[in-house]
Amino acid sequence: MLVVGLGNPILTDDGVGIYVVRAVAAQCQRDDVTFAEASVGGLRLLDVIAGYERIIMVDAIQARDGKPGDIHRLHPNDLRASLHSGSTHDLSLPGALALGRGMGMTLPDDEAISIIAIEVKDVLTFGEECTPVVQAAIPDVVEAVLAEIWQSSGSSWDGYFFPSPLDDTGEVPHATK
């Protein structure tokens, strides 16, 4: 299993995925889990995730009605796919996965990829710390990622519970404790 933190740690809240994975790695000493950080997207992300059967990605998100600090659990099919882009960096995750699979890369099925996304406030300002509201959410996100690791291996966890990726209204639900 690969747990990868995504983002840019010099752009305020955009680094939250990396900060969370660093904290999870410090708490999770399992031989069957590999931790990585990546400041890439699109096709370049495929080099990071290729060869793993199970992936947990942790990243920042700014959803239409999101509130900074909210935690979402998504899968690639919850994200908008795009195969038409000006560069490989702009290629969406579903688009990159489809292209990588078409090129014969060993990638997990979409169902084996979980995305723990944290609603963020500021991803444009240079800074090496998250905004206070996102910083305050990091311990809960760490717990959510630890729960996902344990649930993925069939173990029980009494922390976070994530409902199905889309609720009855078609919206992505928030994590509950």
Count of DSSP H/I helices: 4
- The number of domains is 1
Assigned CATH superfamily? HybD-like
The biggest beta sheet reads:
5 strands, mixed
Helix content range: 25-40%
What topology, given as strand order, has the largest sheet? 2-1-3-5-4
Question: What name does CATH use for the topology?
Answer: Rossmann fold
Which CATH first-tier class would you pick?
Answer: Alpha Beta
What does this structure look like?
Strand 1, helix 1 and strand 2 form a beta-alpha-beta unit. Helix 1 packs across helix 4. Helix content is 28%, strand content 16%. The chain has 4 helices and 5 strands; from the N terminus they run E-H-E-H-E-E-H-E-H. The chain has one domain: Rossmann fold (3-Layer(aba) Sandwich), CATH 3.40.50.1450. It is an alpha/beta fold and 177 residues long. The chain has a 5-stranded mixed sheet, sandwiched between helices.
Structure summarized in a few sentences:
This protein has helices spanning 16-27, 43-49, 93-102, 132-152; strands spanning 2-6, 34-38, 55-61, 71-74, 113-119. The chain is of the alpha/beta class and 177 residues long.
SSE topology:
Layout lengths: L1 E5 L9 H12 L6 E5 L4 H7 L5 E7 L9 E4 L18 H10 L10 E7 L12 H21 L25
Main attributes?
single chain, 177 residues, alpha/beta, Rossmann fold, five-stranded mixed beta sheet, globular, disordered C terminus
